[in-house]
């Protein structure tokens, strides 16, 4: 025979059990949501770094950055080239530990991930020409043996300067921090 007290005890046990179950579901759901958000940020970071590397813009930006002679003209062109190529709302880009570019990034380590890439500069030692206008920046793929040959090859183009690249810089560590 079922008494009212049995129903009351069963209801209390059921309510307590549902409370524990609800807390467990909420806690596990937050962990799952955080994992999905981190994976999404990581995928965005990887695809951006891959796009920069395969298009050659990352290598060109690194070369422009290191060709700067102190007046920050080449450095600004490198930053512009990268800024136009990165379609993220909140990021920071570092080359060998130096922050090159940052947009809406506030160093919140709990909400950010980073992708590391190693850039190998596959250029032979010699003279290269930086050319283009304010909208497009290019570095010649051709290597010239002296300054005059490089200058004469691009006499009909709008060029900034022939620059000498030596094999002093072998590889660079590039970190892209993505925040969401």
Descriptive key words:
single chain, about 180 residues, alpha+beta, three-stranded antiparallel sheet, rod-shaped
How would you summarize the topology of this molecule?
Elements: H1 4-55, H2 57-67, H3 73-85, E1 91-95, E2 98-103, E3 112-120, E4 126-132, E5 137-139, H4 147-153, E6 159-165, E7 171-179
Antiparallel strand pairs: 1-2, 1-7, 3-7, 4-5, 4-6
The shape is rod-shaped
Structure class: alpha+beta
| Mean pLDDT, all residues | 78
Count of helical regions? 4
Low-confidence stretches: none
What's the helix-strand series? Answer: HHHEEEEEHEE
Biggest sheet features: 4 strands, antiparallel
Write down how many β-strands occur, each being a DSSP E stretch of 2 or more residues. Answer: 7
Describe the protein in words.
Strands 2-1-7-3 form a 4-stranded antiparallel sheet. The protein has a 3-stranded antiparallel sheet with strand order 5-4-6, sandwiched between helices. The protein is rod-shaped, with a radius of gyration of 27 Å. It has one domain (4-179). The chain has helices spanning 4-55, 57-67, 73-85, 147-153, and strands at residues 91-95, 98-103, 112-120, 126-132, 137-139, 159-165, 171-179. The chain is α+β, with helices and mostly antiparallel strands and 180 residues long. A hairpin with a 4-residue loop joins strand 4 and strand 5 (137-139). It contains 4 helices and 7 strands; from the N terminus they run H-H-H-E-E-E-E-E-H-E-E.
